[in-house]
């Protein structure tokens, strides 16, 4: 009989409980890995969008700052393509209207008003960035002061 016990022990495999435990461990690790990759992809997409919006905002602030002071300046909107290195295109209908057909994903609206305490001397330009075509605001508006000297 001693030979019979050794043979059974050598042929024994994993029990059903051991298989279930290993399957649960494998599924948990796989779900954690998939969750990590999907949240990383989402974070990367958000960072890309925020970087593009910051670049558009910086571009518009520099454009306003570089232009000459004009007491009758026109409100305007520019459209930007974040996936295409083309120059910004003006919105087809003017201020806060639709971007032209194409790869545009951000629209910058630049408006101004006189500073209440210094009318005719100080303009307050407001630049708002929105995603296109959904129209949702991307961040807060930024104001730039322009003084007639």
Structural description of this entry:
The protein is of the alpha+beta class. The chain has one domain. Helices cover 41% and strands 21% of the residues. The protein contains two helices and five strands. It has helices spanning 2-11, 16-66, and strands at residues 76-80, 89-90, 106-114, 122-131, 142-147. A five-stranded antiparallel beta sheet has the order 2-1-3-4-5, with helices on one face. Strand 1 and strand 2 (89-90) form a beta hairpin. The radius of gyration is 30 Å and the shape is rod-shaped.
Features:
single chain; alpha+beta; 149 residues; 21% strand; rod-shaped; 41% helix
Instruction: From the alpha carbons, calculate the radius of gyration and give it in angstroms.
Output: 30 Å
> What's the helix count?
2
- Major β-sheet profile: 5 strands, antiparallel
Number of discrete domains:
1
Oligomer: single chain
Strand order of the largest sheet: 2-1-3-4-5
Strand segment tally: 5
Report the order of strands and helices. Answer: HHEEEEE
Strand content: 15-25%
Helical coverage, percent range: 40-55%
Q: Determine the mean pLDDT.
A: 86
Described by the principal axes of the CA atoms, the overall outline is rod-shaped
Distance between the termini: 109 Å
List the SSEs and their pairings.
Blueprint: H1 2-11, H2 16-66, E1 76-80, E2 89-90, E3 106-114, E4 122-131, E5 142-147
Antiparallel strand pairs: 1-2, 1-3, 3-4, 4-5
Task: Characterize this entry briefly.
41% of the residues lie in helices and 21% in strands. The chain has helices at 2-11, 16-66, and strands at residues 76-80, 89-90, 106-114, 122-131, 142-147. The protein has a five-stranded antiparallel sheet with strand order 2-1-3-4-5, covered by helices on one side.
């Amino acid at each position: 009989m001693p030979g019979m016990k050794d043979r059974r022990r050598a042929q024994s495999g994993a029990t059903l409980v051991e298989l279930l435990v290993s399957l649960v461990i494998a599924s948990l690790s796989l779900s954690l890995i998939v969750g990590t990759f999907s949240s990383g992809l989402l974070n990367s997409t958000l960072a890309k969008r925020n970087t593009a919006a910051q670049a558009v905002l910086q571009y518009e602030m520099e454009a306003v700052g570089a232009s000459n002071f004009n007491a009758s300046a026109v409100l305007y909107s520019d459209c930007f393509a974040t996936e295409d290195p083309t120059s910004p295109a003006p919105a087809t209908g003017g201020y806060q209207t639709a971007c032209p057909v194409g790869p545009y994903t951000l629209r910058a609206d630049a408006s101004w008003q006189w500073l209440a305490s210094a009318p005719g001397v100080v303009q307050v330009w407001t630049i708002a960035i929105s995603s296109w075509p959904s129209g949702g605001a991307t961040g807060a508006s930024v104001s730039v002061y322009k003084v007639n000297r």
